[in-house]
Amino acid sequence: MNHHHPPGYQLRHATSQDVPGARSLILDTLYREFGYGYVPAWHADVLDLEATYLRDPRHTLLVAARDGEVVGTTALHSRGPAHPPHPRHLADRYPCGRTAQLLRVYVRPGHRRHGLARHMVRLACEFAAREGGYESIYLHTNVDIPGAEQFWRSLAEEVHDARPSGEHGPGVSTVHFEIPMPH
Predict the structure, then answer these.
(1) How far apart are CA 149 and CA 5, in angstroms?
(2) The pTM is what?
(3) Among 88, 65, 85, which Cα is nearest to 15's?
(4) Cβ-contact 157, 177 below 8 angstroms
(5) Which end of the chain is more exposed for a tag (fewer CB within 10 A), N or C?
(6) Span 47-87, pLDDT tens digits
(7) What span, in angstroms and rounded, lies between the C-alpha atoms of 174 and 47?
(8) Are 45 and 77 in contact (CB under 8 A)?
(9) Would you list the DSSP string of 72-139?
(10) 49, 103 in Cβ contact below 8 A?
(11) How many other β-carbons are positioned within 10 Å of the β-carbon of residue 112?
């Protein structure tokens, strides 16, 4: 695997100086791409990125920056999928505390197709493996977002497709994945 990140970009674990840019990118993505914007029940971490990811030693927020601007994010925390809205069997398979959940894997449109998300995800998985208390790396994604399904299928194994049941409600096409823990 190529461990050289794209030229011109810095990939790093975020500091408090990165938080405003990261929050802006995340909120822009929720509004522009997902179309539903900020939903408190789903996005509580976004309001306090610092407390959620920077102050908890088991969590991390990775950023990709170019010329001082945050253009990509990837977050990792220790909560498994919540039931509801997710199925009970997923909540049982990925318990809080032992599951590293990836989320907020976003790259600004003008900076896509450079491998930034792939590199940030790799760094997050390496963090989870180093942390030691994690048994699995889990994520779910909305496959209606262009490129999302192909991206995750190239890195992860599908564990549950929520589309047939419509369990997330109309218009939300969620697929759940697991990424192998790096050695």
Answers:
(1) 22
(2) 0.92
(3) 65
(4) yes
(5) C
(6) 899 999 999 999 999 999 999 999 999 999 999 998 888 88
(7) 23
(8) yes
(9) EEEEEES----TTTS-HHHHHHS-TTTEEEEEEEEE-GGG-SSSHHHHHHHHHHHHHHHH---SEEEE
(10) no
(11) 16
